[in-house]
Amino acid sequence: MKRRLGILFTILCSTMAIISCATVGKKFDTTHVHDIEKGKHTKQTITQWFGEPHMVTSLSNNPAGCVERWQWTYAHSVAGGRTVSDVLIVDFSNNGIVCDNAFSKINQ
Question: With contact defined as beta carbons under 8 Å apart, do 103 and 2 qualify?
C-alpha cells in the first residue's frame, strides 16, 4: 500500500511539474506517524496528532474489519521536478479504534 501511494504521487507530481508548480492537500504534522498503534489508538487521539483528515471514506468488504478510512495528503511539485509529498492513511474499526495504517513520504 505504501509503495503504491508513493508511486502514484511521484507520477502525479512529476506530471504537474512539467506544467508548473502545484500543491495538493495541506501540510500536516507528521511527528506521530510512527507512534500509531493498531488496536490501541482512537479517532480522538489521531485527530489530536494530525488534525482533521483531508478525506474520509467508508470501507466495505475489508478483510481487516476496518469500516472507515481517514486520509491526510500533502504534495507539492515545482517546475524542474522537485517533489515533496506526505500521505497518511488510517483505517478504523466500527468502534473507532485504529485497525490499519500506512504512511508515505517523498522528498526528491
Answer: yes
* Amino acid found at 2: K
Residues 6+ apart with CB under 8 A from 56: 68, 69, 70, 71
Range of 41's domain? 2-107
Average pLDDT per 10 consecutive residues for the chain, totaling 108 residues: 54 52 87 96 97 94 88 86 89 96 90
Q: What pLDDT score does 104 carry? A: 94
**How far, CA to CA in Å, does 10 sit from each of 39, 65, 73, 92?**
31, 30, 13, 27
- Euclidean distance between CA atoms 51 and 85, whole angstroms: 17
Cell of 45: 487521539
User: pTM of the entire structure?
Assistant: 0.76
Domains of the chain: total: 1
